[in-house]
Amino acid sequence: MTLISCQGVRKNYGRVEALRGVSFAVRENSCLGFLGPNGAGKTTTIKILAGLARPDAGQVEVAGVDVVQDPAGVRRHIGYLAQSPAFYNWMSGEEYLLFCAGLFKLPRREALQRTRELLALTGLEKAARRKTGGYSGGMKQRLGIAQALINRPKVLFLDEPVSALDPVGRHELLELIRELKQDSTVFFSTHVLNDADQICDDVVILKEGEVALQASVEELRQGYTDPVFELELESAPDGLLDKLQVLPYYQSHQSSGQLLTVVVSDLAQAKLQLPGFLWTEGAVLRRYQLKTPSLEEVFLRVVSK
Amino acid sequence: MKAMLQKELKEILRTYRWLLLPCVFLVLGLGQPIAFKLMPEILKNSLPPGTTLVMPPTAPMDVLKATLGQFNQMGVLMVILVVMGTVAQEKASGVAAAVLVKPVARGAYLAAKFFACSLLAAVAFWLGLGASAYYTQALIGPVDWQAAWSGGLVYLLYLLITVALAILASTLFSGQASAGGAALLGILALTLLPKLASWSERLFPGALIGQAEKIFAGKEPELLWQPLAFNAGLIVVLLTAAVLILKRQEL
C-alpha cells in the first residue's frame, strides 16, 4: 500500500523554482532515504508533505489524506522532525513531551506513560528534568525524535536527522531509526549517503528540484554495478598479466601490489570463465569479488549526469 | 487549546514576565500620588524665597487620571515589549513549526496567547491602578472607588486592543523588533488617526481613554456602549486577521 504519494509537485519562491514537478511514492512500513545535494529541494518537499507549506501545483497524499485540501486532517497521522529541532528552552524534556501529548489530547495517564517510554527509547531519562535550553545537539536531536513519535505516527518525516551529529550520536540515531521502521513508514532526508545505505529500503534522489532517480537500494546497486573485478592475490605466477591480456573479454587492468583490478567487456562471460582461468594459471587468491559501487558513487554519478 | 493555554501561562511564570509587567505598572501607579503630594514642596524650593505659592487643592480623581496618562505611554509600551515576541520568536526558532504540525488549530494557538497575555496585562493594570488609588486615598484625599473601578474597566479594553494588535504584528513579522515597531505604530495610528473625524473619534480605541477619564471625573459617560462594542469587535477582527495570516504562512 502506498502511504506517501507526490504527483507533479511544483513550488516557486519568487523567481526561484525550488521544485519542478516532483513525483514519487513510498510503500507502507518502508524506509525511504531522500537524497540530494544541498539546495536540491529536500526540506521544501518535506514541509509540503507535512502540510507546513503549500505547493503551487501538484497532488500530495499522506496516509490517505490529501494534504493540500486538508492539511489539518493529516496532522494526527504524522510525526515531523525539523532540520534543527527547537523546543521551548524554559521547559524540561519531560515537560515538552507531556505538552506534545496534550496537543494530541492524550489522557493524562497515557501521556505520562508514553512520555516515560519515549524518554527510555531515546535514552533521555537522566536529562528528563533538565531544561531543553541546556541540551547538547545530540540530545536535542533525540528529543526531537521523541516528540515526533508521541502519537505513534503512521508516517515519520525526519529532515536531516543525523547530519549534525558526531559519529557516536549518528550511529545511535541510525539504530533508533532502524527500530522505528518496524511500526512506521520513515521518510528521511540526508546528504550523507552512507546513512541511507545502512537503513533504507528505497531511495529517491532529488536534483535541482526534480527527481533524478527512484529505486530500491538493491536495484540501485545492481543497476550501477560495473564490469569490474577486484582480486587480491597471495601469490601470482609470472606472466599472469600477459596471459590475462589476451583473454577475449579482457578490457583493461590495474595492478598495485597484491591488488589487481580487471575491467571486462563481457560481464557474463567473465563471471563464468575468470575463476577457471585464475585456477589453471595457479594464482593463489585471498579475495575475489565483483566490485559493487557504494551508494555514494552511484549518487555522484546520478547527480553529476 | 487547553494544552496551549497551560503552556502560555507556564511560560509567563517561568520567564518572569509575571513579575516584570506588574512591577512596571505598580511603579507607574505609585508614582502619581507621590508626585502630586510632593509637587508643592518641589515648587516651593525652586522659587525665589519670599514668593507665596497658591495652589488649588488636588482632586483625588485627577491623580487617577494622571495615572492613566502614565499607563498610556510607558504601560502600553511595556505591554507591547512583553507580547511582541510571542509568535515571532517561536517562528524564528522553529518551535512554531514543531507545534503547528501537530493537531492544534491556528486559532487555538493564537487565542491561547491572547488570553494569557490579556490576563497578565489585566493583573498588572489592576495592581497599578489599585496601588495608585490606595495611595491617593492615603496621601491626597478620598477616592471614588466606584468610578475608579468602572473607569478602569473601560481603560482595560484599550490595553486588550494593544495585546491583540501586538499579537497580530508578531504573526505578521518574524523579527521581534519589527513586530514591536509595527505594533507601536499600529496603536498610535488607531488612537490618533480617528481623531480627524468626529464619528471615528467616538468609536476607535482613543475614545476608551476619553470615556475612562470622564468616568473618573464623575461625569456620566455618553453612549459608552458604542466604543465598547466597537472595540470588542475590533479585537475579534485583529485576531481573526492574525489567524488568516498564520494559516497562509509557511513555517
Characteristic key phrases:
heterodimer; A: 305 residues; alpha/beta; Rossmann fold; Alpha-Beta Plaits; 2 domains; 6-stranded mixed beta sheet; 14 strands; elongated; B: mainly alpha; 80% helix
How does this model look, in words?
- The complex is a heterodimer of chains A (305) and B (251).
- Chain A is of the alpha/beta class.
- Chain A contains 11 helices and 14 strands.
- Chain B is mainly alpha-helical and 251 residues long.
- Chain B has one domain.
- Chain B is 80% helix and 0% strand.
- In chain B, helix 3 runs parallel beside helix 7.
- Chain B starts with a helix and ends with a helix.
- The mean pLDDT of chain B is 92.
- At the A-B interface, helix 3 of A face helix 1 and helix 5 of B.
Describe the protein's topology.
The complex is a heterodimer of chains A (305) and B (251).
Chain A lengths: L1 E12 L2 E12 L3 E5 L6 H8 L7 E6 L2 E2 L4 H4 L3 E4 L11 H11 L4 H14 L15 H12 L6 E5 L7 H14 L4 E6 L2 H7 L2 E6 L2 E7 H7 L4 E8 L4 H6 L4 E7 L2 E6 L2 H15 L2 E7 L4 H9 L2
Parallel strand pairs in A: 3-8, 3-9, 6-7, 7-8
Antiparallel strand pairs in A: 1-2, 1-4, 4-5, 9-10, 11-13, 11-14, 12-13
Chain B lengths: L1 H13 L2 H30 L13 H24 L1 H9 L1 H6 L5 H34 L5 H28 L3 H17 L5 H6 L2 H11 L8 H24 L3
Number of helices of chain B: 11
Question: What is the rounded distance between the termini of chain A?
Answer: 32 Å
Uncertain runs of chain A are: none
Largest interface: A-B, 28 and 23 residues
Task: Give a nutshell description of this structure.
The complex is a heterodimer of chains A (305) and B (251). Chain A has eleven helices and 14 strands.
